[in-house]
Amino acid sequence: MALVLSGQGEKASPILKLGRKYSAYLAYPLLLASIVWLLLLPFQTFTRNGYFSENAMMPNQVYTVFGTEEHMSAMNHIDAELALQSTAKDEGERQAGAVYRAFNSLGLDSEIQRFAYSEVPGVGSTSGINVHGVLRAGRSDSVEALLIAASWTTSSNRTNINAVRLMAGLAKYASEQVYWAKDIIFLVTDGGEHGIETWLKSYHGGGGLYVRSGIIQAAVCLELPPAQSYAGMGLFFEGKSGQLPNLDLVNIVQYISRVERIPAYLHGMVDAPRSSTWLEKYKRSAQLLLRQVSSLAIGKSVGVHAPFLRYRIDALTLSGIVRPTDPVSLEYLSTGVAPVMPAPFTVRAIGRTVESTLRSLNNLLEHFHQSFFFYILPANERYISIGDYIPAAGLMVASLLFQAMHLWWMQGSDDMRSDNPATRIERINAYYAFLRRTLPNTIGIIARVHLLGVILLVTPIAVPYAVLTNTTSTAYVFTMALASVSMVLHISDTYWMESVQRMVDWKQLKAVVELYVAVVVGCLSVMNFSLAVALFGVTGLPLVLTRVWTSATKMRRIANVCMLLLASPVCTLVLSRAALGLSPLDFTSSPFRMFLGDFYHFGSLAYPLVCLVYWPVNLLCMIVALMP
Amino acid sequence: MSADSEQNTAAAEQSPDTAIIAALKRQLLRTEAAERRRLLRVLITGSAIRLIILVAFPGLVSHYLSSRVELSTPVTSYKRLVEGVHLSIHNTSPYDGGLFHQSPLLLILFRLLHVLPDLFTNIVYVAVDAMIALTLAKLAAAKADKSKSNRVPGEIRFVCTPSAVATMYLFNPLTVATTLAKSTIVFSHLAIVSALYAGISGLTNQAIMFTAVAAHLSLYPAVLIAPIALMAAVSRKQAQQRWLVGDIALTLAKFAFATGALHLLFAAVFGTQYFMATVDFTLRAADLQPNVGLFWYFFIEIFDEFRPFFFVVFQLTALAFAVPVSWRFRDDPLFAGTMLVGIISALKSYPSWGDLSLFLGLLPLFEELAKYLQYSFLSANLLMYGVGLAPVFWHLWIELGTGNANFFYAATLVYVFGQITLLFDLGGAKLRRELDIHYPETRTRTVIQE
C-alpha cells in the first residue's frame, strides 16, 4: 500500500516487496476473474430460488371473482363512451373525456389533468392529458393507496385500449367489494412516461391536482396490445437509474399469474424446458440477464412503471404477449382500426391476476422492505442477490487499482527504485523533483480534457434547439469529436517536443486516470451495477488493455489508437444504432438524445457519465497511447 | 518553484561577494513581487468563481447543497442560522425551540446582514474564504522564513509558495462546496488560521483571542490553545534557552479568562438555555442527524443508560490528544496545530467535509514531509471513496429507500479511516524527518520503531 511516495528511500517490508513484484501481473488475472465471474452468473448453481419474504402478502389465498357480466359490460362501456365523444376536437380530448365519464359513472372521484412537456429541454412542447379516478376504500380514510396505470399507446406503438377497458372492468369489480383497506387509483395517460411523471409530480405536491388519496404503496402498469388472446405476459421492472421494485412484488405477481394460468415471464422470455441441456439453459439465462443489464444501464424498459420507482413506489409493467399469428393483431396492423375486445377467457385471466395482486397488496402492513432491492433475475422465480454479483465489480476496481499501483511505482527513471540505503537522500531528491515537475502537468491534462466534457454536457442544455434537428445534432456530435481529436493531437504533440520531454510521464497519467475511473466505477456499482459494468467496459477495459509496453513502436501506437477509436463514444453510438437496424447517422432519435431527455426529466445518470467520464477518459487513453 | 531562489541565496551566503548579493536581492524582490501578483490572481479567481455560482445558481445553493448532511450539520447549518436570526429579530430567544445551536457572535453578524440584500451575505462568505486562503498563504511565507535552517543535509528543499498554498485551499472541491452551502464552519476556520498565524508571528494575545473566538464558534478548536501556548513559549525559549512553565500557564489562564468571559457575557444575555443549546448540545451529541462522523450511528444504537459513559469516552478521544500531540511536536507548534485540526475533523461530534477541507488546506505548509509519507496511496484512496460513496449511499438510503443506515455509516467509516491513516502517516513522517535533521548519520539507515 505504501507504493506511492514512500517507495523511494524507506526500506520496504516483505509484503510490500511482494506487492511491487507482482502488482504488474495482478491486473490481468483480476480482470479475467471479473469477466469469468460475470459469465458464471447465468449458471443455475449460482442462483437461488425466489421466495416471499413478506408473509403478510398471502398471495393467492383468496377466491377471485373478476369476470362477471357486469364487469364485461363496464369494459364495453368505454367503447360506447368513445363513440359518444366523437365531437371532441382531438383524439386526446376524446379519449380523456370517454375515460372520465366512464370512471364517473362507476362512482370514482375523477379528474382530468392537461399538461405540456418537451421531450428534450428546449425542444418544442407536446401536450398530453391524464385522467385518473380514485376508488375510496371502505375500511380506511385514504392514507394509503394502490395504483393501476396504463398509457394509451404501448411501447411498440400500438393502441392500448384493451388495458383501458380492463381498467374499467377492474374499477367496476373493485367498487363492488367492501374489503379495501387502501384506496385504488386508476390512471390513464396519453403521454407515456412523461405523463406519469407529470402526474406523480403534481400528486406529490407539485400542484394542479385536486382529487387525491394517500401514500401510494405499489403500482401495476398494464400494456395489452390488440389481440384475440395472449400467450402469456411479459413482466418488466427496470427503473431509470438502476432502481428496481422490491423483489417481493415481482415474486407475488409471477406466482399469482402462474396460478391464474396466464404466466408473467420476465421480459416475456419463457424458461428453457427442464429437459433441455445445460447449454440451452445457460444461453437462455444469459440472454435474459443481458436484457436486464442493458435495460438498466441505458434506463429504458417496456412500460410506464419507471417514473413510479423514483417516488418510492414499487411498480412493474405487465405486458400481453401477442402470438405472431393472432388474427386480431394482424388485422389491426394492416387496417389500423380500433380492435375488438379480446376473448373472454383471456380477459378473465388477466383481470383475475390483477385482482389477486390487488388483494395481496391490500394486505400490506407497511411499505415493501422485507425482500431485496438489489438483484438480477436469471430465470423466472429465481434470483441473484447483490452479494453474489457485486464481487465482479470489486474485481474490476481491484484490477484498475493494482495496475495503477504498479504504474505509479514504475514511473520516472530506473535508478530511483534501487534498494541501496546509501543513496537514499539522492533518490528521494530525484524522485521528489520528478513529481514536482510532472504532477501539475498530469493534473492539467486531465482538467483540460474534462473541460471539454463539461462543454459537451452543458451546451445542449444551455443552447435551445441545439439538438432539435437531425442535421444540427449530428453536426454537434461530430464537431465535438473533431475538437476532441485535435485536443488529443495537440496535447500529445506538446509533450513530444524534445525540450519538454520529461515534463510528463505516461505511466503517471495512466495511473491517475485509472484511480479516477476506479472510484467512479466503485461508487456507481452499489447504485447501478449494470451501468457500472457498462462504464467499465467502455472506459476501464480499454484503459487496462492499451499502452501496456514501455517503449512504443509506431505500429503498436496505431493499433492502440484504432482500438480506442473503436471504443469511443461516437463510434459506439453509430455502431449501436446500426446494430438496432436504424440509420447510423440520424441522431435525432439517438441514444445521446434519449440520455439527455432522461437526464433532464428523470435525473438519470447515463448522460452526465457519457459527457464527464466516458468521453474524457477515452481521450485520455489516446493521449497515453500517443505519449513518448 | 521557489527552490531555485533558495538555492541561490544559499550559494550567496557561501561566497560573500557584494555585487552578486545585490543582484540576487534584486532578483528575490522581483520574484517576491511576481509571487504577490500570483497570489492576488488566485484569490480573485477563487472568489469570482464562488460569487458567480452563488449569484447565478441560487437554487442549487439553497435547495441542494445547504441541506446536504455531508456539508452542513446541526451546529453549522445556514438554514438554522436564518431561523435563529428570525427568532431574535422577533424578540424571542433564538435558543427556544431547540433548533438553533450556533454562537451568538454569528447572530450579531447575521442580524446585520439580514437587513441587507442577499448579495452581501454571499460576499461575506466569499470574503471569509478568501481571507482564510490569504492567511494560509501568509502562514506559508512565515513558516518558510522560520524553517530555513531546519534542513536535512543534502536535501533539496521545495517550499510550497504562498500562492500554491492558497490555490490548494481555494480550489479544493470540498472547500468550494462548503462555502456554497454557506456552512458557518468557515467562520470558525477563519478564527483558527488567524490564531495560528498570530501565534507564529509572536502576537500571543491576539492568538489567544482568536482561539477563544474559534472555541466559542465550534468548541473543539479550544484544544488549539496548547500549540498556541507553545508558540508563545518558543519565542521566549529562544531568548532564555529553557522552557518557561510560567509562560504556558499564563497563556492558558488568559485563554480561560477570555473564553469564560465570552460565555458568561452571552449566558447573562440569553440565560442558561444558551449554554445548554450550544456547548452542552455539542458535547452530548444530542442531535443524531447523520453526518460524516462516528457519533450518530453509535448513539442511535446504544441503550440510553450507557449514553453518558460513552459520550465521555468519545469526547475524550477527540480532546485528549491536545496535550500529548502538542508536547511531542513542541519544536514545531504549527505542525502540532495542524495535527490537532485533523484530529478534530475526524473525531468531533458534528463533523462535515468542511472540517477536512481546512486540514487539507493546512497540509501544503508541510510540503517537506510529503516524501516521507508512507501510506498516501491508501489514505488518498480511502478519502476519495469516503467522499464519493457518502452521497451515493445517502441517495440509496434516504431518497430511494432501498438502502439503510448501515450503508451510509460504512461510507463514514471509510472517510474517517482515511483521515486517521493520513494523521498517523503525517506524524510518522514528521518524526522521521526530525531524526534525519538531528542525527544526519542515520539518514541512510532504516529506522524501525517499536
Molecular structure report:
The complex is a heterodimer of chains A (628) and B (450). Chain A has 628 residues and is of the alpha/beta class. Chain A folds into 2 domains: 277 residues, no CATH class; 270 residues, Aminopeptidase, CATH 3.40.630. Chain A is built from 19 helices and 11 strands. In chain A, helix 11 packs parallel to helix 15 and helix 12 crosses helix 14. The N terminus of chain A is likely disordered. With 450 residues, chain B is mainly α. Chain B has one domain. Chain B has 20 helices and no strands. In chain B, helix 1 packs antiparallel against helix 2, helix 6 packs antiparallel against helix 7 and helix 6 runs parallel beside helix 9. The longest helix of chain B has 39 residues. Chain B starts with a helix and ends in a 12-residue tail after the last helix. The N terminus of chain B is likely disordered. Classes of the chains: A alpha/beta (628), B mainly alpha (450). At the A-B interface, helix 11, helix 12 and helix 14 of A face helix 19 of B. Chain B: Belongs to the PIGU family. Chain B: Keywords: Endoplasmic reticulum, GPI-anchor biosynthesis, Membrane, Transmembrane, Transmembrane helix.
